[in-house]
Amino acid sequence: MTRIAKLLKTIIPGVFIFMVTAAVAQDAKEIVRKADEKMQGEESSIAVMTMTIKRPTYQRNLAFKNWTKGSSYAMTLVTAPAREKGQTFLKRDREMWNWNPRISRMIKLPPSMMSQGWMGSDFTNDDALKKSSIVEDYVHTLLGEEKVDRQYCYLIRLIPTEEAAVVWGKVMMWITKDEYLQMKVEYYDEDGYLAKTELAHNISTIGGRVLPSQFEIIPADKPDQRTIVNIESIEFNVPIDDSFFSQQQMKRIR
Question: Domain of life of the organism in this record (predicted)?
Answer without folding.
Answer: Bacteria
